[in-house]
Design goal:
Radius of gyration: 35 Å
Number of strands: 9
Strand content: 5-15%
Number of helices: 28
Largest sheet: 5 strands, mixed
Distance between the termini: 79 Å
Helix content: 40-55%
Strand order of the largest sheet: 5-4-3-6-7
């Protein structure tokens, strides 16, 4: 009977406690008693000082644990808060739990730092273990930054010990190195994501490839504005569920959700840059169309460097003789690259002829324009040495004498050699254009001026020979002697060359104009060119740019913030008139930063358009560079089974990490230390208490 009375008293609301709205009527109290719902007893707050109860919401929770999110049990209902029924055992169990005790000790440490057990532990770690962890995290950063194997951690720790750096034996295996690098990458990613979120507008660069392990992966970069200006940063590499546009869209979605960014409904994403594959842009149900279906404000950009590559291929594809030239260049490279003996003989021949050799280069399919110019330049400069050496090899009895004769026959043709000189003149401005477009600091409004400059160079080349072709003409006699070597088929070769030259230039200029001056990227990218002050006309500046400003404001109207009541288009036009007076003396380089610093309050709408123009990417070259670094240095033939998560961590450290002298591991150590579900063994295991486990050597 006494036990029953005690149970009834325990489940009865204290009389002098404030009543909750849910028990305001007698009927509700009777119904509550019948259902035997356990109410909150306010006397529990005297027993558990950390307990708090909200009368209006009826939620009880711990007031201490939420203050220490890294130490508490985030899955506990007492930490998150819960409603009736309440049981005394629930709070009693939470009071005795290890995570809650750690949080209470941390609270005591904040109030009385000298007396708390956690403060002593951290103090001990600061004095002894923290230096050990600093050394290990710095070594791990070096390993990731220089693409060393994880197993090097123990060896480098032993080396540090030999140099009288006190390093303990704990946490020096390859698995721990992988874990250290993971937390270093996470700390770096947090900094990048914080900068991205702080940027008013961002653009995404996406590319895909298949690695050595035949896993289809998607690499994602983000272009944004931070304190130092416009920046392109690596964000993630993710495996694709399938190599379709939907697969890429899911990968982008997943990564943005992981960093808590909503590109579909948010207003920050304004641009997307990809290569020209039909899967990405220009095809049916491509990635660009799927993204613009969700947000039509997003401007999709075909990588400009890739367009240059396509223009060169288009101009040379119509001339069949170019294939013969490529075959000869590849044959020369293979003939010498595969034999150190031939390379030595070629060097000796050049020394006798007092000629300076350039290293023969291989034709790359990815960097085709740049590699072809380098290969052509090397063959032109080494031509006399190559011909002399190949003649000697062809006259001998070596097994490769027939190969030497075949290559020599092509090298000595007038048509081949003059075409080679012309191709250098033709490809050089296109190479320069391609390299310019690969710069991450190039703005979209500067594209048109570089295109027009390149077209002007090609038009000049159509009228008169270039410098390399002029050099060939001046050094070739009427009879066809070039550097004291007789060229073959001069008369016939000259006629065929003139036809080839005319066709290459005509097709090249027409394709460049088609791809760049009449781009399908609507009027948006063309309108952005008004922010290039170098192209402003000296006369009729008053009416210049009004149509372009109207186009830009109409397209990005939902993104632009405007405090006034007047029409935003009219506001932008009024700002544009005054902006031209202030900015006509300013260079387009760093224009946005100068306007933000000196005139930001005067041109609020135009400043937002300048920011959008700054973050719109010109090319996806950063993705290509990231893949090249990944395939050649990280996921090479020795590490082809590297997991995607580890690869992502290594790329984050490699591409976004600071130089080693500037690396501060404190944040990464903090994340590593507080991320464990159970306390870290910062004082080492019980079996390793002697100083004999240290790597350091005492002299």
């Amino acid at each position: 009977m006494a036990q029953e009375n005690l149970l009834n008293n325990e489940n009865t609301v204290v009389q002098d406690a404030p009543q909750s709205p849910c028990v305001s009527s007698a009927g509700s109290v009777v119904e509550s008693q019948k259902s035997r719902k356990r109410k909150f007893l306010f006397k529990w707050k005297e027993e558990f000082k950390w307990l708090e109860y909200n009368v209006e919401s009826g939620v009880a929770r711990c007031s201490v644990c939420p203050q220490f999110k890294r130490l508490c049990d985030s899955s506990s209902r007492v930490v998150n808060g819960f409603k009736e029924p309440f049981r005394h055992e629930t709070f009693k169990f939470h009071n005795l739990s290890a995570p809650h005790r750690r949080c209470m000790e941390a609270l005591d440490g904040q109030k009385q730092p000298d007396n708390s057990s956690v403060a002593k532990c951290l103090k001990t770690m600061d004095e002894k273990m923290f230096f050990h962890l600093e050394v290990l995290f710095n070594i791990s950063f070096y390993i990731a930054k220089n693409n060393k194997p994880f197993t090097d951690l123990r060896g480098l720790a032993e080396l540090a010990g030999k140099l009288n750096v006190e390093v303990l034996e704990g946490y020096t295996n390859n698995k721990q190195c992988k874990e250290f690098i993971h937390y270093i990458a996470q700390s770096l990613k947090e900094d990048v994501v914080a900068d991205i979120k702080a940027s008013e507008f961002v653009s995404v660069l996406v590319d895909g490839s298949t690695g050595r392990s035949d896993v289809e992966e998607c690499i994602i970069y983000v272009r944004y504005i931070n304190a130092s200006g416009v920046k392109e940063s690596y964000l993630a590499i993710a495996p694709l569920a399938n190599s379709t546009a939907l697969g890429y869209l899911d990968a982008v979605d997943e990564e943005f959700q992981r960093v808590n960014m909503d590109w579909r409904h948010g207003k920050c994403l304004v641009g997307l840059a990809t290569d020209g594959s039909p899967l990405m842009i220009g095809g049916v149900n491509d990635l660009a169309s799927k993204i613009t279906n969700y947000a039509n404000r997003i401007t999709t950009i075909h990588c400009v460097s890739h367009k240059v590559h396509l223009s060169v291929l288009k101009s040379l594809k119509g001339v069949s003789y170019i294939d013969e030239i490529d075959h000869c260049l590849i044959s020369v490279y293979k003939f010498y690259n595969g034999s150190s003996k031939r390379q030595k003989q070629l060097s000796e021949t050049a020394e006798v002829l007092s000629a300076k050799l350039l290293k023969l280069q291989k034709l790359h399919t990815v960097r085709w324009v740049a590699s072809k110019v380098g290969t052509i330049k090397a063959v032109i400069q080494d031509w006399r040495s190559l011909v002399t050496h190949l003649e000697n090899v062809g006259c001998g009895k070596e097994t490769d004498s027939s190969k030497a004769k075949g290559v020599l026959k092509t090298l000595k043709k007038y048509r081949f050699l003059r075409t080679l000189h012309f191709l250098h003149d033709f490809l050089f401005p296109l190479k320069k254009l391609s390299l310019t477009f690969q710069k991450p600091d190039l703005l979209i409004n500067q594209v048109q001026i570089h295109i027009k400059k390149t077209i002007a160079s090609l038009e000049e080349l159509e009228k008169t020979p270039g410098p390399m072709e002029n050099e060939f003409i001046n050094n070739t006699s009427v009879t066809g002697m070039y550097h004291e070597i007789q060229l073959d088929e001069m008369t016939e070769g000259q006629k065929k060359f003139e036809c080839d030259r005319k066709e290459i230039i005509e097709i090249g200029m027409a394709d460049v104009k088609r791809r760049f001056l009449k781009t399908a990227t609507d009027d948006i990218l063309t309108s952005m060119s008004i922010f290039d002050t170098f192209t402003w006309p000296e006369k009729s500046l008053g009416s210049f740019g009004k149509e372009e400003v109207t186009t830009l404001v109409s397209h990005y109207k939902d993104l632009l913030q405007h405090a006034g009541k007047e029409d935003i288009i009219q506001k932008a036009l009024d700002e544009w008139h005054e902006f031209k007076i202030c900015a006509k003396t300013l260079s387009s380089v760093g224009l946005m930063g100068k306007v933000m610093k000196h005139h930001g309050g005067r041109f609020p709408v135009l400043l937002q358009l300048l920011k959008i123009a700054s973050v719109l990417p010109v090319s996806a070259a950063s993705c290509e560079r990231g893949y090249s670094q990944m395939m050649s240095l990280m996921k090479n033939k020795f590490r082809s089974c590297l997991e995607t998560e580890s690869l992502d961590d290594l790329m984050m450290v490699n591409l976004n990490g600071p130089p080693l002298p500037q690396f501060n591991p404190t944040k990464a150590i903090d994340k590593w230390y507080f991320s464990a579900k159970t306390p870290r063994h910062v004082r080492r295991h019980k079996g390793n208490t002697s100083d004999s486990s240290a790597f350091s050597t005492k002299t």
